[in-house]
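2024-03-11 09:14:02 INFO worker-7 job=invfold-0412 stage=load source=structure_tokens
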């Protein structure tokens, strides 16, 4: 898991640098087979070194490392149990959290929300680090790559950490656009038909070079 631990440190610094977390909040993990490397509990994301990252198995059993795993490890493991994810990113980014304070769902105000699987649900509030919160997040993520968490933050997953990170950035951008738009008027929400047309266009072989940069993995539904 040496490369996974290095990646976690690199992306932790990027996420902290973007202001998507404060203090020791936020956590990341990478799965390789049956093992998961995760950020340690109580560390600011920009001060983690590879050896600080504990390795656990998919049941949460401690495999390697001297530092306690992130308190949100149950949430990460719940996502791995439900999806083919290779990485999970959880942040407390400001605009995402603002939407999670006030809404039950981020509506489709921009077609790129389809890259997250569609309108982003807000998971019901529960105390951080609990099995209840992990369960609420699993429910909100059904068929999606992202969820917001009431009075808390947001979570995304992807095939690898680069994809989970890009999903987290996209989620925060969508939330920022929505918050800004609400300040000057009532945002227009895309219709089902308009979203379906985007899905069809992305499925056609006439995509432009720019369209080709969008290559989401399909989220797996909870069964
Ligand atoms: Zn959190």
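2024-03-11 09:14:09 INFO worker-7 stage=emit residues=223
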């Amino acid at each position: 898991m040496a490369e996974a631990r290095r990646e976690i440190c690199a992306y932790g610094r990027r996420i902290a640098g973007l202001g998507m977390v404060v203090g020791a909040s936020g956590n990341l993990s990478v799965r390789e087979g049956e093992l998961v490397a995760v950020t340690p509990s109580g560390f600011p994301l920009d001060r983690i070194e590879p050896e600080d990252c504990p390795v656990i198995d998919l049941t949460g059993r401690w495999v390697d490392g001297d530092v306690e795993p992130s308190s949100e490890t149950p949430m990460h493991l719940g996502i791995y149990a439900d999806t083919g994810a290779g990485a999970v990113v959880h942040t407390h980014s400001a605009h995402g959290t603002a939407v999670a304070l006030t809404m039950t769902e981020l509506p489709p105000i921009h077609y790129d929300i389809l890259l997250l699987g569609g309108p982003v649900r807000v998971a019901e509030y529960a105390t951080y680090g609990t099995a209840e919160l992990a369960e609420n997040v699993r429910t909100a993520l059904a068929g999606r790559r992202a969820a917001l968490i009431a009075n808390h933050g947001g979570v995304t997953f992807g095939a690898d950490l680069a994809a989970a990170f890009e999903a987290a950035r996209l989620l925060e951008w969508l939330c920022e656009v929505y918050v800004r738009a609400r300040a000057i008027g009532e945002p227009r929400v895309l219709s089902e038909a308009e979203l379906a047309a985007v899905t069809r266009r992305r499925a056609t072989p006439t995509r432009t070079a720019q369209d080709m940069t969008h290559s989401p993995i399909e989220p797996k539904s909870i069964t």
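2024-03-11 09:14:09 INFO worker-7 stage=report msg="The pocket of zinc ion is lined by residues 25, 72, 90, 92, 128, 152-153 (CB under 6 Å)."
2024-03-11 09:14:10 INFO worker-7 job finished
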